[in-house]
Design brief:
The mean pLDDT is about 95. The chain is about 75% helix and about 0% strand. With about 170 residues, the protein is an all-alpha fold. The chain contains 10 helices and no strands.
């Protein structure tokens, strides 16, 4: 990576190098360094939804949830079909205590990727926190259609012990 850093220092217009370094540092858990490179890439391509999503992700990892929400908002504005941006924004909203908005984000993420269990698990957890067992049961039924392991995980997390019938 030192060679890539040197090459980038010699040619600051190399957006691919910026993104490669951002991903590298993100994977190493060096989120501030990753954020620096994603921000630099966004100066080159400010309307790139993937770069904005990556920025939001590393901000989230640093517990910079308000900033992450802003990055995910921009991502969604550019590419409203990017389910992971809705999910990421929902996770940051949960961290900030914005349950109702988080529920809406998880619902949209689940709508965009109906076979992805992660937004459904989070949706069920938020319904549980909001003391809405009917909605938790609805989510469990949906999960049960395609992911028994995630169903069990959600049932254990919400202490739902009743038999869920189709």
């Amino acid at each position: 990576m030192a060679a890539l850093e040197s090459a980038l220092a010699a040619d600051e217009s190399d957006t691919a190098a910026k993104i490669t370094l951002g991903v590298y540092y993100g994977e190493k858990g060096q989120y501030a360094a990753a954020e620096k490179h994603f921000r630099s890439a966004l100066r080159d391509e400010p309307e790139n939804a993937n770069y904005l999503f990556n920025l939001g992700f590393v901000q989230q990892k640093q517990d910079l949830h308000a900033e992450a929400i802003n990055s995910f908002d921009a991502t969604i504005r550019i590419n409203p079909g990017l389910d992971r941006a809705w999910f990421g924004r929902g996770m940051s909203r949960v961290a900030m205590g914005q349950r109702e908005q988080a529920i809406a984000d998880f619902e949209q993420a689940a709508k965009l990727q109906p076979m992805n269990p992660h937004p459904l698990i989070e949706l069920g957890l938020q319904y549980h926190a909001a003391n809405n067992p009917a909605k938790v049961t609805e989510v469990i039924r949906k999960l049960r259609e395609f992911d028994p392991k995630a169903t069990k995980q959600l049932m254990q997390a919400t202490q739902m012990t009743m038999e869920v019938k189709n």
